Amino acid sequence: GPEESMRIQANLGSDIAMAFDECIKIPSPYDYVKNSCDRTYRWLQRCKMALEEYTGRDDAVNPGQVLFGINQGTIFQDLRIEHMKKIADLDLAGYAIGGLAVGETTQEMYDTIAAVEPYMPADKPRYLMGVGTPSNIIEGVYRGVDMFDCVMPTRNGRNGQLFTAEGVINIRNKKWEDDFSPIDPEGTIFDRRYSKAYLHHLVTCGEMMAAQIASLHNIAFYLRLVRAAREHILAGDFKEWKEAAVAKLGRRL
User: Based on CB atoms within 10 Å of each CB, which residue in 40, 184, 242, 243 is the most buried?
Assistant: First the structure.
């Protein structure tokens, strides 16, 4: 339950503890989702009290550990907003949008984020859980999201999929067999060290280094992407940059 979840996270000593919630499948009946949101809110109240107790102990692993609440409600925007208003009143360190990227359309996800965002405290971090592709991330930023987590860079890397600013490369394809150009000419020194042909060779041989190189490349690409997003926000031309980037990011090369 909530108390056990907080005890485990307090013992782990993470900087952020995430609330104990129900991630509701999509689609689900409206009444079920409403009751689930109410239950998740009650659990959040218990999480807050429990974590304050655990972090207040003399032997606390991380006394400064903070709690993020998780907004739920599937794609029912009225339930999302009602739930967000209630959890915002608990004055937590940050707030997450959970229960997305689990089967709804991409547009439904974007519409849900846009509906909830005005009710998320402007001075607290906003975290979109389990998202996503490079396009998902910068579209999320456009709608007010600050933080993301996703297995995609490493999981897809292990399967030979590379993300680049010009689109997606499946390095398993035979077309890369004799391509001795860098993995990503716009990337880091690391990316320019290895050719597409070399990585294709490693993948086809089942060499573990292929998964390592591809995963590191994808993580580095995600970091470059959000760094660029930050720069364009500061420059005041984020919307134009985002639209041009999204047009390319999902292409198959």
Answer: 40
Task: For residue 42, give the nearest of 24, 67, 21, 16 by alpha carbon.
Answer: 21
The residues that bridge with 147 in the sheet, in sequence order, are 127
DSSP 167: E
**Cβ atoms 49, 84 nearer than 8 A:** no
* Residue 122, both tokens: 């402007």
pLDDT tens digits for range 216-253: 999 999 999 999 999 999 999 999 999 999 999 999 99
113 touches 102 (CB < 8 A): no
CB 217 within 8 A of CB 183: yes
Q: How many CA atoms lie within 13 A of 144 on its CB side?
A: 20
Total-model pTM: 0.93
- Write the pLDDT tens digit of every residue in 178-201: 999 999 988 888 888 999 999 999
Among candidate residues 92, 85, 86, 98, the one with its CA nearest the CA of residue 51? 92
Average pLDDT rounded to a whole number, residues 153-157 = 97
Burial 32-57 (b: 16+ CB within 10 A, else e): ebbebbeebbebbebbbebbeebbee
Q: Which of 218, 209, 167, 158 is nearest to 188 (CA)?
A: 218
Q: What is the pLDDT of residues 61-107, one digit of tens each?
A: 999 999 999 999 999 999 999 999 999 999 999 999 999 999 899 99
For the record, the structure tokens of 196 come out as 């597409």
Q: Which value, to the nearest 10 degrees, does the dihedral of the CA atoms of residues 175, 178, 180, 183 take?
A: 30
